[in-house]
Amino acid sequence: MLALLQFDAAALPLVAQMMADGRLPTLADLRRRGTWMRLDAPLLQSAAHPTLYTGMDVRDHGLYSAFPWSSADQRAFPVQRFRKPPTVWERLTDCGRRSLVVDPYLSWAPREMAGVYLSGCHFVDRIVLPRRSVPSHVHRDLAARHGRPPRLDDVYGRPRVASLVGLRDHLVRSPQRVAAAVVDLLREDEFDLLWLTFGAAHKAGHHLWDAASVVDGPIGEGASRALRDGLESVYVAIDRAMARVLDALPRHADVIAFSPTGMGPNLSRADLLPGMLEAVLNGNARGSASMRRGSRSPIWSLRGRVPVAWRSWIASALPDDLVANLTTRLYLQADWSNTRAMAVPGENQGYVRLNLRGREREGSVDPSEADALLDAIAEGLASFRDPDGLPSIRKVERMTALADRPSVPELPDLVVSWCDRPAARLSRVESPRFGTVARQGSGSGRSGNHTDDAWAIVVPGRSRPRDLGRPAGIADIGATACELLDADRAGLAGSSLLEAA
Fold first, then answer.
1. Residue 135: which residues within 8 A CB-CB, separation 6 or more?
2. Which residues, listed in sequence order, are joined to residue 195 by a DSSP beta bridge?
3. What residues does each domain of the chain span?
4. Burial of 401 (0-12, 13-18, 19+ CB in 10 A)
């Protein structure tokens, strides 16, 4: 058996410090018995989870965001709506291998499944962890035994203290509940693969990294202590849950504990990018009042005007598909005949796409003009500064240069990497050429965001380590499962980290 224990989006410096301090004894023991390795980051950080679960490169699968852009529809959609390559567990199903897959972050339910697929066990989130179960009764059976997971949808905006304290409490409790469910399933059935994602670390990293920097209202002493230690408490809970699962594995199981992406301060200014791009394309920044009336990204204007509590209540009363559809439809509205480029949804990086004729449904830019326009946009964006006078952007790169080979047309044309300064309290950015672009509302309300600090601990059971002759990457995780368990490896971007002894 191969057990993949995904400590999702863990902050590597914090994990290392907590292992050294003896606060993550399970992870420290795995490191002592196995091989610790840093993993190379994927081409686009926001593509980490689709790359991880399919084993394919983003240049081939094109799922670079939670809300990729659809040229045929001239709008963004949730990632689940797009054509999806087979996941690792679907490849294993095809060769008769049974998998137990629990809470794959930002994934999709399998077409067919030999084994059990569960999403929404730590918590339910309509975008990244919707409630899904194959077979359909398993979720219901586990909830009856171990309790129902809480609903923890992300609602962008400045959160209330009480909401963050409640979130922290839910996330600290959830790993033990999930571990108990996994142990039950391991006792009741036999599986060739266990892929268990501890998603509590991921959501905790976004919201508990530095809660004081984003909360709405004063923080009392008790709440301050709970939030200050919240992320570490979640990590301790995951370590204990991991120990419980390891005790239930068959003897000589191969184990890989890993994190496909890291976590650190939220540097993203992605909500400001539509206004910055519009200023560059128009030759000036529109005034803040005008932006509120006419922004081409009305979703951020709406989030800025409507309180978080109201939006959360409205969203909870509507069907998940309707909320996702409304969110993506509102992200960008434009007169396409006069639109040369658009800022498409991203997370920690910013993405720009040309409205290219022959590629977009309503393209307006002639391909012969593309190079000059991309250069002008990159140069203009680089002129923006934070209020302290330091650059807002570290670099702007062309996707063609980053990809270094032909890739699917779904990817953005420019990738914006933000400067290395937290942006949670940022109110505006300024350019000497294009003026001021004001933030509408408070941005995402997240204090933490992703970094490229991916890592793995490989602990062989019946297998032995394999020297790849190169740095390992997250695509090697899926390749390991497919090779050890005899699944089809066509199209995989990685190689196995283990081989039969």
1. 116
2. 4, 101
3. 2-68+76-265+449-500, 270-443
4. exposed
Cβ atoms of residues 496 and 486 within 8 Å: no
Q: What is the largest CA-CA distance in the chain?
A: 67
Q: What pLDDT score does 47 carry?
A: 93
Secondary structure in 3-state letters for 213-227: HCCECCCCHHHHHHH
pTM of the entire structure? Answer: 0.91
Give the domain 2-68+76-265+449-500 fold. Answer: Alkaline Phosphatase, subunit A (3.40.720)
Task: Give dist(CA 444, CA 156) in Å, integer.
Answer: 5
Average pLDDT, the chain: 90
DSSP class per residue in 282-334: HTSPPPHHHHHHH-S-HHHHHHHHS-HHHHHHHHHHS-HHHHHHHHHHHH---
Q: How far apart are CA 313 and CA 165, in angstroms?
A: 18
User: How far is Cα 339 from Cα 355, in angstroms, rounded to an integer?
Assistant: 7
pLDDT, tens digit, 9 for 90 and up, residues 260-275: 999 999 999 998 999 9
CB atoms within 10 A of CB 461: 17
- How far apart, in Å, are the Cα atoms of 227 and each of 28, 56, 224, 396, 467? 25, 37, 5, 35, 42
Task: Give the tokens for residue 24.
Answer: 């993550």
- The two tokens of residue 370 are 């593309």
Check: CB of residue 308 under 8 Å from CB of residue 160.
Answer: yes
pLDDT along the chain (501 residues), means of 10: 98 97 98 97 91 96 92 89 92 98 95 95 93 94 95 84 94 98 97 98 96 84 88 98 98 97 95 93 60 46 54 56 61 81 90 96 96 97 96 97 92 96 92 92 85 97 95 97 97 96 83
Question: How long a stretch of residues is the chain?
Answer: 501
| No. of helices (H) and no. of strands (E), the chain | 18, 20
CA distance 212 to 183: 37
Q: CB of 6 within 8 A of CB of 182?
A: no
Which residues does residue 40 pair with via DSSP β-bridges, in sequence order?
A: 473
Q: How far apart are the first and last CA of the chain?
A: 14
Contact 42, 292 (CB under 8 A): no
